[in-house]
Give the backbone structure.
Amino acid sequence: MIRRDEQPCPYCHKEGFALTKIVDETVGIKEITVVVLDRLERDLKWLLATLGVTIISPVVTYILNVDSLSSMFIGIGTGLIAFAFGIKAFVQLKQIISGSG
């Protein structure tokens, strides 16, 4: 009997399907060691963009001599932009190493 399972790939998360054949036999299972290495990598251009937006916000409000309410909205807006850039500044990488044990 062949069954079609539609599930995303656990590694690349692409949609697809896998064909599964159900076998009514005894099989030997070999022990497999799987090591997952996680690390964060910095993207320098996004990190510099985050720093630039963070520094530019108070400078612009000082130079334009903006009142307190407007400067608050400018600060919140540039803070959200800096937060979005900061998320892109760091990328999590996963490396999966498998071997027989």
